[in-house]
Amino acid sequence: MARIVGGLGSPHAPSVGAAVDRHEQDTPYWKPLFDGYQPMRAWLERERPDVVVLFSNDHFTSFFLDVIPTFAIGVAAEHEIADEGWGKRPLPPVPGHTDLASHLAQSVVADGFDPAICHRLPLDHGCLTPLSALFSWTPTWPVRVIPILVNVLHFPIPTPARCFKFGAAVRRAVSSYEDDLKVVVLGTGGLSHQLVGERFGHIDPVWDAEFLDRLQDDPQSLAALEHRDFIERGGSESVEVILWLCMRGALSPKVRTVHRNYYHATLTGYGQLILEDLGGAAR
Ligand code: DHB
Ligand code: FE
């Protein structure tokens, strides 16, 4: 039986991926963030998951205004590196897991969700930033990745409650997969940031800390909030923390934070998190 051993949270801003490519991890600007990845990399090397289910969003790379799926699952055997306009990052294609991804798709549809099933889904910074910060890819990526992209860009976007329930459906799907696989769920993006308008540059570290506390202890209370609440507290683009609610929904009610880091020197409040799953059935 496949099982979820833990949940991770990571930023996905493109500047972090660029810092990886330029080997700037130890510069004064980036060190406080990349030091926060070290315990996560060590945890992943210890746990050696077979598959990462990666909750992120497309940034008008694979989808555009003509078609925007609310939820989309990448079922390809291999995911291409997208060109976001300045050339592809120097990364090899990311291995997928077609069989588990197809099972997930089938299971969540039976469970009342209707994702787009994507046989080709080039990955942009939403997926590649966290993957390249958390894993080494030479000689090959050490893990298979199932990208699940959620529309957080263009309203109507799914409610926080819907994302939390979607995570729980993913947990039920993983638990009903026959093969013995170790799975990690990864929520990406956030935390507080606003990249447009009058509040450009808005960051609220107090809210970000409260968000991470409640994500561990009382995620239901976050799932009960409205988009407006997240936007007021954390800024317009921070609404993408509903991706972290997908991740949290895929874990047991009881989890333990074994690593947490926060850095906000840039335009975005970066949170990094490891939640160990203490077991139990899906909600
Ligand atoms: C930026 C882009 C993102 O998608 C994000 O989540 C945070 C920051 C950026 O362009 O800086
Ligand atoms: Fe983003």
Rounded radius of gyration (Å): 17 Å
Q: How is the largest sheet built, in terms of strand order?
A: 6-3-7-2-8-1-10-9
Separation of termini?
18 Å
The total of helices stands at: 9
Order of helices and strands: EHHEEEEHEHEHEHHHHEE
Q: Could you tell me which ligands this complex binds, including any ions or cofactors?
A: 3,4-dihydroxybenzoic acid, fe (iii) ion
Low-confidence stretches: none
Could you please describe the fold and organization of this structure?
With 283 residues, this protein is α/β, with parallel strands linked by helices. The protein contains 9 helices and 10 strands. Helix 1 (14-21) packs across helix 4, helix 3 packs across helix 5 (160-175) and helix 5 (160-175) packs parallel to helix 9 (242-249). It is globular. The chain starts with a strand and ends in a 6-residue tail after the last strand. The mean pLDDT is 97. The structure holds 3,4-dihydroxybenzoic acid and fe (iii) ion.
